[in-house]
Amino acid sequence: MASSCTKYELRCNECGKSYGNRPLSACPDCLAPLEVQYDLESVRGRFTRESIAAGPANIWRYKELLPIPEGFQPDLPVGFTPLVRAKNLGKRIGADNLYVKNDAVCFPTLSFKDRVVSVALANAQAFGFTTVGCSSTGNLANSTAAQAARLGLKACILVPADLEAAKILNTQVYGARLVRIDGNYDHVNRLCTLIADEYNWGFVNVNLRPYYAEGSKTVGYEIAEQLGWRLPDNIVCPMAGGSLIRKIRKAFKELIALGLVEPKEVRFFGAQATGCSPIAHAVKNGWDYIEPQRPNTIARSLAIGNPADGPAAAKMIQETGGWAEDVSDVELVSGIQELAEDEGIFTETAGGVTTAVAARLYSQGRIGRDDLTVVCITGNGLKTTDALEDCFAAERSVKPKLAAFDEYIRAVDGQLIGADVEPVLAGGAR
Ligand SMILES: *Cc1c(COP(=O)(O)O)cnc(C)c1O
Ligand SMILES: [Zn+2]
Questions:
Q1: What's the CATH number where 339 sits?
Q2: Over 80: is that where the pLDDT of 428 sits?
Q3: 418 vs 21, which has greater pLDDT?
Q4: Domain end: 212, 234, 254, which one?
Q5: Fewer beta carbons under 10 A from the terminal one: N or C of the chain?
Q6: Which of 101, 112, 247 to mutate to test the pocket of ligand 1 (most atoms within 8 A of CB)?
Q7: What is the mean predicted confidence (pLDDT) over 131-156?
Q8: Segments forming the whole domain that contains residue 408
Q9: What's the pLDDT at 425?
Q10: What is the pLDDT of residue 396?
């Protein structure tokens, strides 16, 4: 009987050298990132539309193409988030065929990072780590803390000292050790590289990064399946380290190679905040390298000034005929409000960036009105309510009397009273 286990191993993107399976993120020879590569032939016949449909309604339905160690029993129902048609937002920005992939409601911690953490921690356990951690701009901290708690692993998590309060509390509540570092994400990440070696800890986005990154592919599998096993024309995706956007493309390529979807060159569009836009800057200049920046934006979850997968992401976007754009903090706040007002989806600052960038790409004509476009919303607005602090005036309170309400509502929002209600009010009953 053929083994039911998918064959995979780490390989260097630059020199092609193989490293088997171990906690290692960069090629010791050329320092390029390592990536998990599969023997797709070992999967053919076992990874079909039917076998997937028979799986659970979460990311583990795609486990044949995830780097899952032998004997791993999937536990948490992570992912399989809604793909929703966005007609109202489409009308606003001139898009007739627009969809939102809504990872603002991902299980268990309301961001797409739940996908990467579940794959990373499966490997952390297999490698024998008893303490895990991460360097994080917030969402990864939340997810690592939550899933480590569930698995009975100890967790030590490092974040920039000035992170949003909600993201700090959303990490501590799970009992993880949270360490605030005086510095930005890039300082935190460098420190974690040293700690991982010194303490023999499993850092999901440092020494376990190649496995972590594969979890992002599930966004791509889900989009294709939810579109009825079709690929979209365009993907609009936020970028921090530049990993997610590349892995969605890897997912599409694997589906094409295995015959689950028709071949198609999907164009990829990257979104960043202007205050930290090293990848968008590289794309606009036609570079395949990154000029590091010092982050200064309220889009904290995207604030990585020297992104590990930035060069590869910039190159990939250009290869697909896509583009990258960046928007100001003021524009991203409008993006949050527009997505909420149009589609009833409350996203965090990163989603505001993605929404505002999508609008700009349509207005620039880089995306055609009739194109099938999927906008990736990656995090939940309840974690970054600070961003909207100045948007809404404090409302005065009203006495519990109909007359008081009537006076109030006419003063602040006469439009709210429809023509059909008018006679009733006029008729008395006060
Ligand atoms: C981490 C993160 C991203 C970007 O992920 P990369 O793979 O590092 O590019 C996007 N959105 C949110 C909300 C995130 O937390
Ligand atoms: Zn190499």
A1: 3.40.50.1100
A2: no
A3: 21
A4: 212
A5: N
A6: 112
A7: 96
A8: 394-430
A9: 53
A10: 86
Residue 16 domain-assigned? yes
pLDDT tier, 174 (very low <50, low <70, confident <90, very high otherwise)? very high
Q: Does residue 233 belong to any structural domain of this protein? A: yes
Domain match, 101 and 129 both: no
CA angle 203, 205, 208 (to 5 degrees): 65
Q: Residues 192, 290: one domain?
A: no
332 and 401 share a domain?
no
In a domain, residue 192? The reply is: yes
Q: Which residue matches tokens 């100001």?
A: 328
Please report whether residue 173 resides in a domain: yes
Whether residue 175 sits in one domain with residue 264: no
pLDDT digits (tens, 9 = 90+) for 365-376: 999 999 999 999
From the CA of 33, how far away is ligand 2's center (Å)? 8
Composition of the chain by helix, strand, coil, percent to 5: 45, 15, 40
**CA 144 – CA 151 distance, rounded (Å):** 10
What is the average pLDDT score of the chain? Answer: 94
**Interval 261-316: pLDDT, tens:** 999 999 999 999 999 999 999 999 999 999 999 999 999 999 999 999 999 999 99
What are the residues whose beta carbon lies below 5 Å from ligand 2 (ion)?
Answer: 12, 14-15, 27, 29-30
- Residue showing tokens 């694997």: 254
Q: Are residues 201 and 295 in the same domain?
A: no
Q: Are 124 and 147 in contact (CB under 8 A)?
A: no
Q: Residue 429 pLDDT > 60, yes or no?
A: no
Contact of 77 with 351, CB cutoff 8 Å? no
Closest by Cα among 164, 94, 110 to 345: 110
Q: Looking at the 3D structure of the chain, how many domains does it have?
A: 3
- pLDDT attached to residue 125: 94
Distance between CA atoms of residues 367 and 365, nearest Å: 5
Residue 411 — φ and ψ, nearest 5°?
-75, -40
Q: Which residues contact 20 (CB under 8 A, 6 or more apart)?
A: 9, 10
Query: What is the CB < 6 Å shell around ligand 1?
Result: 111, 113, 139, 238-244, 301-302, 348, 350, 378-379
Q: Are residues 272 and 170 in the same domain?
A: no
Summarised one tens digit per residue, pLDDT across range 60-77 is 999 999 999 988 888 899
pLDDT reported for residue 421: 58
Pairing, β 234-238 against β 154-160: unpaired
Within this chain, do residues 184 and 291 fall inside the same structural domain, yes or no? Answer: no
